[in-house]
Write a structure and sequence with these properties.
Number of strands: 13
Number of domains: 1
CATH architecture: 3-Layer(aba) Sandwich
CATH superfamily: Ribokinase
Shape: globular
Helix content: 25-40%
Bound molecules: alpha-D-ribofuranose
CATH class: Alpha Beta
Largest sheet: 9 strands, mixed
CATH topology: UDP-N-acetylmuramoyl-L-alanine:D-glutamate ligase
Strand content: 25-35%
Order of helices and strands: EEEHEHEEEHEHEHEHEEEHHH
Radius of gyration: 18 Å
Distance between the termini: 32 Å
Structural class: alpha/beta
Amino acid sequence: MAVWNFGSINADYFYLVPHIPGRGETLAATKFSTGLGGKGANSSVAAARAGADVFHIGAVGADGAWATERLASYSVDTRHVETVEAPTGHAIINVAEDGENAIVILAGANVDQPLVTALQALDAAKPGDYLMLQNETAHQATMAEAGQNAGLKVVYSAAPFSEKSVRNVMRFVDVLVMNEIEAQQLSAALDTDIGKLDVPHILITKGSDGASWFDIQAGTQTYQDAFKVDPVDTTGAGDTFAGYMVAGLDEGLGVAAALRLASAAAALKVTRAGTADAIPARQEVEAFLAAQPA
Ligand code: RIB
C-alpha cells in the first residue's frame, strides 16, 4: 500500500544557542545551519526512509525548487507538490545545548495550496492506503474527510496544537497522534479524558518517557519505552516517530513492532542535528535495534 502525506514543506533555519532566549533577551548563536523541514516533509522523509511508498501533497513558492528536489532525493514522490505564488514556508529554530528547541514558523506557501489540486491528488489513492496530516497546512478537515470517504486510514498529528483544527478533523481520523503536551492541551480544551475521545486509536509520544498506543474500542494500551540516547537536537523527533510508525503499520507490522521501530528511529534522530536531513535510514535503525541489549 502507499502513504499519502498532505503536509508542510519548510526551509529550516537552525540557530544553536546556549539556552532558549527569554522574553526580551538578545542572544548570540554559536552556530547556524539550514535544511529541509516542515512537519509534513519530515514525516514524509521518515516514512520513505523506513521503506514506504510515499506521495507528498504540498506546496512551495518559486524559491522552493530545492526543497522539492531534496524531498525527491529521499525517495518521496513529489508529483503532487505544486508551486504557488507565496514564498516557501520557513521555520526559525533555536536549539539549546541540551537539545531542546523553540520554533517560529511562517506558513507561506503551505497554506496557499488550492484545495482542488490537493483533493485531486487523492484520486490515485486506494482503499487501505494511509493519509497523514498535520496542522501546518490549510484544508486538513476536508482532506481528512475525503481520505476517510476513499477508504484511507487517516493519521492526524495535532501539531502545532490548534483546538479548532482538532475539533474539525477528529471525526475523520483513524489514528490521532499527539505529544504529551498536546494531549494535555486537548484534554483541557475538551474537558475530557484522552481515553474517552471518539477516535479509534490514539498515539501519544512522550520523548524520553516512551510512547503509548491506545486502542479506544478495545480499551487496550501498548507501551514502548524510549531508547536511551544523548540528545543533540530533539527537533523533528515526533515527525520521525509518526512517519516510521505509519510506514511500519503500512508494511504489516503489528502495533508493538511498529512502535519499537518508530521509537528507535526517533531516538537516532535526536542524536543528530537537523530535521528531514537528519532522519535515519531503515538500515541504520535496524542496526541500532540489533545493538540493543535483549
Ligand atoms: O517538527 C519540526 C518541524 O516543525 C520543523 O522542521 C519546522 O519546520 C516546523 O515545521
